[in-house]
Each structure stands twice: as C-alpha cells, then as structure tokens.
Amino acid sequence: MVEAQKNSYQGPPRHHHTSLKKPLWLVLTVSVLSMILICTHMSPKHIKTSSKTLSSAWLPVHVRKLSDEEIAVRAVVRDILKTPPFITQNPKIAFLFLTPGTLPFEKLWDKFFTGHEGKFSIYVHPSKERPLHISSHFNDREIHSDEVTWGRISMVDAEKRLLVSALEDPDNQHFVLLSESCIPLHTFDYTYRYLIHSNVSFIESFVDPGPHGTGRHMTYMLPEIAREDFRKGAQWFTMKRQHAVIVMADSLYYSKFREYCGPGIEDDKNCIADEHYLPTFFNMIDPMGISNWSVTYVDWSERRWHPKTHTANDISLEFMDNVTTEAMSTHVTSVGEDGDELHWPCKWNGITRPCYLFARKFHPDALDTLLNLFPNYTSTAV
Ligand SMILES: *[C@@H]1O[C@H](CO)[C@@H](O)[C@H](O)[C@H]1NC(C)=O
Ligand SMILES: *[C@@H]1O[C@H](CO)[C@@H](O)[C@H](O)[C@H]1NC(C)=O
Ligand SMILES: *[C@@H]1O[C@H](CO)[C@@H](O)[C@H](O)[C@H]1NC(C)=O
Ligand SMILES: *[C@@H]1O[C@H](CO)[C@@H](O)[C@H](O)[C@H]1NC(C)=O
Questions:
Q1: Which of the four pLDDT bands, split at 50, 70 and 90, describes residue 61?
Q2: Is 8 in the pocket of ligand 3 (CB under 6 A)?
Q3: What is the largest CA-CA distance in the chain?
Q4: How far apart are CA 323 and CA 298, in angstroms?
Q5: Is 7 close to ligand 1, i.e. is its CB under 6 Å away?
Q6: Are 273 and 210 a contacting pair, CB within 8 Å?
Q7: Nearest atom (ligand 2) to Cα of 322
Q8: Which of 270, 277, 296 is closest to 354 using CA atoms?
Q9: Is 319 in the pocket of ligand 2 (CB under 6 A)?
Q10: N or C: which end of the chain has fewer CB within 10 A?
Q11: What does the angle CA 253 – CA 257 – CA 261 come to, to the nearest 5 degrees?
C-alpha cells in the first residue's frame, strides 16, 4: 500500500555533487544597486543618502534580481489568477483516486455518489495493479499511470497525471485528491456545495521549524526557494481549476523539488516531495488563495512514523460525529522530542465551519461498520 510505506522509509543516504547555487552576494549587490538607482532617480533630495543606511533601513533581505524563468512563471501565474474562472453550465467536482490497486471503500463511495450523476467525475491512478470494481461509477475510469515510489517525485507526477486528465473536462471546477484509505464524511450535496462555492483551494501549508519541516530545505533550492518560504503540508489537497492549471504551468519550482527533495537526499535529510512542493509553491505564488489546512482528517496523535489506522473497533457514531463537526484544524510539527501541535479555526469564506469533508486512514475491515453508520453520521452537520 502506498500509504503503509509512508514515513517508515529509512533508506541509505544519497549524495548530490552538483551545485547550482548562484553567488548570492553578487545578486544582492546588483539588487541593492538598482534599488539605489531607482530611489535616487525618484527623489533627488535623497541623493546623499548612503547605501548602507538605505539597505539596512528598509530594503527587504530577499529582494534580488529574478531569473528569466522566474519572471515568466510569475507572469503566467498572475495572468491565470486575474482571469475570472470560466463557469460552465454544469460544474462538476473531479475525484482523483491515487491507489496501488483495488479501492477497499468503493462500496461506500458508491453510496456517496449514487443519485448525483452528472455532478462529479472520477479518475483512478493505480500504481501497482489493475483495480477490480464493484461500482459502475468506477468502471473504466483508470487513467494512464505509472509506478509511485514513496517520498519521491513520482508521487507528485502521479498527482499531476490525475490533474491533467481531469482538466480535459471543462466542467470540472474543483479537484479532490484521495487515497485508497480515504472515506467521505458528509453527503454528496454538502461536499459539493462546500467545494464549489469555496473561494480558496484546501491545501495544508504551515511552518514546521523542526527537522522534518524547514530542516528538509536544501541550499541547492536557493535562490528560487528561500528557507523562509519553505512549508509543510499533507499531500491530500482539493484545488480550484485555476490552481490546477497553475500546477501544470510550473516547471521551475517543480524541478527544484524533483532534483533536491527525496528520501535520504543528504545524510540526515528525508525530504518528502509531496509534503513540501505544493505547500511551498502555493505559499509563494498565492498565499491568500489557499486555506492552509486540509479537508482530509488524519490522526497523528500517536506520534508514530505513520498516522493512526482506524479499524472497525475504533469506529462509533460518537467518533464519526466528533470528526464531522470538528471546526479546529491540527498541524503536527517535528519540534522537540514528541513534536508540537498548531491549531487554528477552519474558516470557510470567512465563516467558521467544520474542517473535514474526508478522513483517513481507515482499515478495509471498517467497511461494513461505515456502510451501516453512513446515513447517521452524514446527517449530523449542516
Ligand atoms: C496562509 O498562510 C500564509 C503564510 O504562510 C499567509 O500569508 C496566508 O494569509 C494564509 N492564508 C489564509 C487564507 O489565511
Ligand atoms: C468525542 O469528543 C468528546 C468531546 O471532545 C470526547 O470527550 C469524546 O471522548 C470523543 N469521543 C470519541 C469516541 O472520540
Ligand atoms: C474569501 O472570502 C472571505 C470572506 O468574504 C474573504 O475575507 C477572503 O479575502 C476571500 N478570499 C479570496 C481569495 O477571495
Ligand atoms: C442510525 O439511524 C437509524 C435511522 O434513523 C436508526 O434506526 C439507528 O438506530 C441509528 N444508528 C445508530 C448507531 O445510532
């Protein structure tokens, strides 16, 4: 299972010998000089201001000359964000399933989708074997796919493959990435309204100052990706169409993660591409356009290498009600012995709302319990 391997990898260190790092002092000097030129040009009165005073007084440390590639990416991103989304007659949500093979909760998803035909589309990326389907909604929904190695860029490549397949249908307005161990927490109608009318993408992005957060930043990522811009977040996103297009348009930042973010990339660094690329990228290019929390619930309270897997015995109506009504998000950092927790309220278009639409990780033996409780727990939150 893709997820079972997650966070348990302790592979041998891999060394990188290439250094693309540009002389930072040169870039900084050029930036400072051009700022001084601009300033003296604009206000002749201040001609005598020394460069020292200027730079230390108000010049932000990260001001530098951008490369042609960076200028190009930023121009494309700005243009996409400024263009109002093209709303079709029949807006749909694309559900993107990233799975090794057969989906253990297909029967539950079938229950979720039935009766809402025409408002969703399903795409399945099996990375190991061809799934067997029991629901007609899932028949022949496999896309061209490839192997996925935990922590490596192949995980991000699979996400991009799913996004691009779903972008081909202009009706798809919001895109949801799900794993084989994910379950739905609300009715289809609730989920549809929550996502279609949201003014942001739900991408978790936070600063983890510990070794499994900012500690995974590599100097090779400079100057394009500054250490203070580096973010962490769960892989399981939902994304507006504009953001999906932007992900397709980026090759610059993507290539930094492809080259310099992987398990054992340096002696003590286990950089996990899918936990950092999108959280960092969106923090840099559209920080106000993402929620910073994920709509997919997960339980890290055991503080193990992988999150808690919920079996049939862990599930009760009370537990499900707790998860579906939770309105405070939790983010676990790697600071200190046991990590630290960050919390903030889940704001949906400015209103505090339940955080979670989906939940992971669930053991396949929980299927029958969940099928029985589905009508009860999905009716709780309004
Ligand atoms: C998300 O976090 C970034 C900083 O990391 C912040 O600039 C941005 O305003 C936050 N987004 C929202 C919607 O609060
Ligand atoms: C549900 O939440 C309440 C209040 O936080 C807590 O006391 C209870 O133990 C939770 N129940 C389950 C099954 O998680
Ligand atoms: C989303 O809506 C809230 C509430 O109206 C607003 O404060 C926020 O700026 C909006 N965000 C975007 C990206 O439009
Ligand atoms: C779920 O709802 C049904 C119908 O309202 C009810 O008969 C059943 O007892 C409920 N189950 C639980 C565990 O509360």
A1: low
A2: no
A3: 78
A4: 10
A5: no
A6: no
A7: 1
A8: 296
A9: yes
A10: C
A11: 160
Q: What is the average pLDDT value for the chain, to the nearest integer?
A: 85
* Ligand nearest, relative to CA of residue 353: 3
CB 77 within 8 A of CB 242: no
Secondary structure (H, E, C), the chain = CHHHHCCCCCCCCCCCCCCCCCCHHHHHHHHHHHHHHHHHHHCHHHHHCCHHHHHHHHCCCCCCCCCHHHHHHHHHHHHHHHCCCCCCCCCEEEEEEEECCCCCCHHHHHHHHCCCCCCEEEEEEECCCCCCCCCHHHCCCECCCCCCCCCCHHHHHHHHHHHHHHHCCCCEEEEEEEECCCEECCCHHHHHHHHHCCCCEEEECECCCCCCCHHHCCHHHCCCCCHHHCCECCCCCEEEHHHHHHHHHCCHHHHHHHHHCCCCCECCECCCHHHHHHHHHHHHHCHHHEEECCCEECCCCCCCCCCCCECHHHCCHHHHHHHHHCCEEEEECCCCCCCCEEEEECEECCEECCCCCEECCECHHHHHHHHHHHHHHCCCCC
- How would residue 269 be classed by pLDDT, with cut points 50, 70 and 90? confident
Burial class (CB in 10 A: 0-12, 13-18, 19+), 363: middle
Please tell me the predicted confidence (pLDDT) of residue 5.
Answer: 38
Kindly give the interhelix angle for 188-196 and 106-113, rounded to the nearest 10 degrees: 80
pLDDT in tens, 125-159: 999 999 999 999 999 999 998 999 888 999 999 99
What residue type is 165 in one-letter code? Answer: S
Instruction: Report which protein residue has its CA nearest ligand 1's atom 6.
Output: 287
- Reported as a single tens digit per residue, the pLDDT across 356-375 is 999 999 999 999 999 999 99
CB atoms within 10 A of CB 328: 12
Evaluate: CB of 305 within 6 angstroms of ligand 2.
no
User: Distance between CA atoms of 139 and 131, rounded to whole angstroms?
Assistant: 10
Which residues are within 8 A (CB) of 185 and not within 5 positions of it... i.e. 6 or more apart? 297, 320, 323, 324, 356, 357, 358, 359, 377, 378
Residue 249 amino acid letter: A
Q: Are 237 and 160 in contact (CB under 8 A)?
A: no
Those residues whose C-beta lies under 8 Å from the C-beta of residue 313, and which sit 6 or more positions away, are none
Q: What are phi and psi of 53, to 5 degrees?
A: -60, -45
